[in-house]
Specification:
- The structure is a single chain.
- The chain is built from 27 helices and five strands.
- With 548 residues, it is mainly alpha-helical.
- Among the domains are: 78 residues, Serine Threonine Protein Phosphatase 5, Tetratricopeptide repeat; 270 residues, P-loop containing nucleotide triphosphate hydrolases (Rossmann fold), CATH 3.40.50.
- The chain has a five-stranded parallel sheet with strand order 2-3-1-4-5, sandwiched between helices.
- Helix 3 runs antiparallel to helix 4, helix 8 packs antiparallel against helix 9 and helix 16 crosses helix 24.
- The radius of gyration is 25 Å and the shape is globular.
- It starts with a helix and ends in a 5-residue tail after the last helix.
Length: 548
């Protein structure tokens, strides 16, 4: 009898807890609902809804790993629950596991096409993957289900602002802010437009109000970075640098559990240095300079690399302006070599000793990916752009010895400053950029590897100087085009139109669509703040011939 009474009391208590939580949710008070759910869980009143709400609370606090654990418990209790799966997709995105997040969210919207929140989260994920067109479609799908979804309107406004579509951006932002006065994406859209128009003070005012709210995570990082840009636009460099530093500190606090130092996690710089040591230890390769043709391959194959913020996006769009050229920006075309030819710690097998059949299989896998990403490249010139592609030069030399390599060069001080002032998609490299001295050391490591590969690998290299490109565009492009195998065309000058038509997805979007943007010498205004990094960069400033 006591046992039955106890069970009845427990059921009653669970019902009351559930009712209280449902009432809080009906009132739109998710925070209160999550608090009640946590209290119920503490009393061993466990169900999928309680776990999902408690996970949301962890997620809001930045504890993505804790949130993920609770969501997996909820999924075990309610297999296939689209609300739980949607939460898992959101947490996977915030953990930086974008491909997995997208797969989960694709499953959710297929199972429940009218799940507006899942379409919205899918848009966030695609934005993080720099799939602008697909993200836009996802936001529109969310709005078709719920026209009052302010975050979707805000994201559309932000994307339009980045594309320079001011009228559309303002209207979308107006609609978002009417529904949610502090929508971060809509506010950032209007701030972006103000900064581009030279109204740094107006942007500062908007962003100060936004930063006074409780925005967290990536949203706060973005707002702080834009605040730096707004202050920079007004010539307030000291205040601007403080804001950039706050943005990077916030980035680090958010992603420390995933990207920060750990016993089982090597830094991205160490990864590069491991590859470098193997290149130096290996004898100079004597492999053939041409391999048998592979189905689907391009007539001309170009790898464009250098370093983030060195000008690779600019050059890619210049080349893509010519007839018969297909270019891809920062696609992981060499993904099939990961964990096969290079491990997570940077160790590689003897690439010269690879079996010819394995080489043929990896070449074929590469061209299949290229086709999936960019269409048919057969008979055309193909440009594979990846600023960090120098890391893969030993693999490129083994699989594609016939390829031509364009290496972008820009003043190292401008590069490191620019990397520090930009929001990158979370990654091990982005973690390096979030600290000035580590960014400088990371740059030095990749330059050392690239230079050693130029000395030891049988590849054709051509250097493209950013300073010469903006000062003497035609002659610089003529030399580059001749190396690639292209004739000069006046279409090269219209790269800004090409960028607008293609839809630039990198952090360089606003500069490239404005035309030939001269970003030389930006570092001088921040020389005092750059002081800790300058000795690390000095040897490369001298080697590449930039003025001290």
């Amino acid at each position: 009898m006591r046992k039955n009474s106890s069970a009845s009391f427990s059921a009653s208590r669970r019902a009351k807890a559930h009712a209280a939580i449902e009432n809080a949710l009906a009132a739109g008070d998710i925070a209160r609902a999550a608090e009640l759910a946590e209290a119920a869980l503490a009393k061993n009143e466990t169900n999928a809804l309680f776990l999902n709400l408690a996970a949301w609370r962890r997620e809001e606090a930045g504890d993505y790993l804790g949130a993920h654990r609770l969501l997996q418990q909820a999924l075990a209790l309610a297999p296939g629950d689209v609300m739980v799966l949607g939460g898992i997709g959101a947490v996977l995105r915030k953990e930086g596991r974008l491909e997995k997040a997208l797969a989960v969210l694709n499953h959710v919207v297929a199972a429940e096409p009218r799940h507006a929140a899942a379409w919205l989260e899918r848009g966030y994920t695609l934005d993080s993957m720099r799939e602008e067109a697909a993200a836009r479609d996802s936001y529109l799908r969310a709005l078709a289900i719920d026209p009052q979804l302010a975050p979707a309107l805000g994201r559309l406004a932000d994307a339009a602002a980045k594309r320079g579509e001011a009228v559309d951006a303002r209207e979308l932002a107006r609609r978002a802010l009417a529904l949610q006065p502090h929508d971060h994406a809509a506010t950032c859209a209007l701030a972006t437009l103000a900064i581009e128009a030279g109204d740094g003070a107006g942007a500062e005012h908007r962003l100060a109000a936004l930063l006074g709210t409780e925005i967290r995570g990536d949203d706060r990082t973005r707002a702080l970075t834009l605040m730096g840009d707004a202050l920079d636009r007004q010539g307030k460099t000291e205040q601007a640098f403080v804001s950039y530093a706050q943005a990077q500190d916030n980035f680090r606090s958010v992603y420390a559990p995933i990207l920060g130092p750990a016993p089982d996690r090597r830094s991205h710089r160490t990864y590069i240095e491991t590859i470098m040591a193997q290149v130096e230890a290996a004898p100079k390769t004597k492999l053939p300079s041409v391999l048998p043709p592979t189905p689907g391959q391009a007539a001309t194959h170009v790898f464009l690399l250098g370093y983030p913020r060195s000008g690779t996006t600019l050059v890619e769009n210049v080349l893509a302006s010519a007839p018969g050229v297909i270019a891809l920006e920062e696609r992981d075309t060499l993904a099939d070599t990961d964990d096969v030819l290079v491990m997570n710690d940077g160790t590689m097998p003897n690439l010269d000793a690879l079996d010819p059949s394995q080489v043929a299989a990896l070449r074929a896998a590469y061209w299949r990916r290229v086709t999936d990403y960019g269409g048919d490249v057969v008979g055309k010139h193909f440009v594979d752009m990846n600023p960090l592609g120098g890391i893969k030069l030993p693999i490129i030399a083994r699989l594609f010895p016939e390829a031509r390599i364009l290496v972008m060069r820009r003043d190292p001080r401008d590069i490191v400053l620019s990397c520090f002032r930009i929001n990158f998609t979370p990654s091990p490299a982005a973690w390096a950029f979030s600290d000035l001295t580590e960014a400088a050391s990371h740059y030095a490591a990749l330059m050392q590897l690239t230079e050693r590969c130029r000395e030891r690998l049988p590849l054709a290299f051509h250097e493209v100087r950013y300073d010469r490109l903006v000062a003497d565009f035609e002659n610089t492009v003529r030399a580059m085009a001749a190396f690639v195998g292209l004739e000069w065309t006046e279409a090269f000058r219209r790269f800004d139109r090409t960028a607008q038509a293609r839809g630039v997805q990198t952090a360089s979007v606003t500069q490239v669509r404005r035309g030939l943007y001269d970003g030389r010498g930006q570092w001088h205004r921040y020389a005092a703040q750059l002081a800790p990094a300058l000795p690390i960069l000095a040897p490369w400033v001298e080697k590449f011939g930039f003025e001290p």
